[in-house]
Fold these 2 entries.
Entry 1:
Amino acid sequence: MRRIIFIGPPGAGKGTQAARIRDRYGIPWISTGDMLREAIAAQTPTGEKARTCVEAGDLVPDDVVVSLVMERLTRPDCADGFLLDGFPRTVAQAEALDTASGNGPIDSVILLEVPSETLFERLAGRARDEGRADDTETTIRNRLLVYEKETAPVVDYYRKKRGLVVTVDGVGAVDEVTARLQAVLD
Ligand code: ADP
């Protein structure tokens, strides 16, 4: 059973690595950032609630994200495990996930670590290449601050409560990082 959480600052490479882990282990990759961007594009009620927060680089309210994820985790493809990318991003979200017993406990929390100067460079590069609406300099800075304030405590939450956290160095070639992750997960 592989119920995995990927945690790490914006630009750490979670999405890139998550796609590879999904392919290797055959578990669904659940990215709340992607789900929210889809909802925004489709102008669903969830999308409308999320739009201004996402564009500013602020967090979407916990209740909105929690219900999105809980619905997703009840689908049959999650029965043998899943890879959560971008969730939980607050301690309240982590508590909500713990309370929802349906999918059982989390097996591992992988912290992808990258120094902040590197993060900013990567995000600025992605802003040039992909033009994502929340990849402007101001929102990048805000997302990094929000990570320190709201999401870093989630790492402590899992460290204290369950001792599930494994730290993986996210610096280096994409293949090197994938190899480090596989060493942890195999
Ligand atoms: P990044 O890791 O580069 O910041 P994501 O694609 O994971 O990008 O998230 C993009 C945006 O979506 C976040 O800045 C936030 O506004 C929103 N978001 C994603 N996941 C969550 C979450 N679990 N809780 C609240 N907001 C979220």
Entry 2:
Amino acid sequence: MSVVLGIETSCDETAAAVVDDGWRVRSSIVESSIDQHRDFGGVVPELAGRAHVAMIAPVVRAALEAAGLDVERPGLDAVAVTSGPGLIGSLLVGLAAAKAYALSWDAPLVTVNHLEGHLYAPLLERPGLAWPLLTLLVSGGHTMLVYQRGPGDHEVVGETIDDAAGEAYDKVARWLGLGYPGGPPIDRLAGEGDPNALALPVSMTGDDLDFSFSGLKSAVVRAGERRPDLAPADVAASFQRAAVEQLTRKLRRALDRYEVAGVAIAGGVAANSALRAAVREIATSYGVVAHVPSLALCTDNAAMIAAAGLARFSRGLVSGLDASADPNWALADVL
Ligand code: KG4
Ligand code: ZN
């Protein structure tokens, strides 16, 4: 049995997890420096990097202990770590730590693309799922549709041409004074508002599978300024309706084009209640299985990195100790 430690430090979460090749999550620890960033309306790279330096060793130790492993000699088959995309100063902390652990435990190092990691969240809960899959990967930095033939075999078939969906949530929340990150408070508030209060355009209604969210954010701000009487809950509900409508419209278009056994969602925005409900409905109407991961596996975590690392390790894709971080590593460039 192979056992892999995963380390994730691409943004504000310092995370470590142990996963085995039965796709079982033996432990998953996530610490976040989010409280230090709230006042700034976004993640401050220098603060995130410093927090990772302080947290990485205790978080790794906690993950090993929770998995019942010896923290001095855990007997791991590999150490997997996110090496991009993300904040360079944050990525380097995790990568340096992973190299040190790999060297001292004499375990191979496996570098993992953060977005590929997100694609493993559904697999961790349904190891025997049927392929192929269409996955809507929606996070703070990325929005894409991915056609997956199997683990590690994926093709990006649609992508945002400007902002990511999560970025739009964060910007609208900031404008509404709801703080950072914006997804959870907008999601909550939307439940109390009228989704038809503001007539907002659904962008990108063409035949392609690409997305655009910068226009939607501007439309919300313009419409909100025209009608200052509008309740924040109505603004949130109207925005959420338009955002989810764009995402699901493209998912349906992709399902018309690709023959798949299931649809999945992944990334922080996959925690959104309206999107989760809509994707389940779409799957039912297309007669495919919906893979909607639990909330803790949608947002950044190291279990998904350990899982991706495990799959790469089993294909012999190990890295040298001279591996470098790439803050702009595209999913399409993952080998
Ligand atoms: O995947 P993630 O944790 O980090 C990145 O890799 O970017 O995604 C974070 C993003 C943020 O933009 C946050 O506002 C959004 O996910 N998010 C949500 C929800 N929970 C988190 N967006 C909409 N609804 C939510 N419930
Ligand atoms: Zn992420």
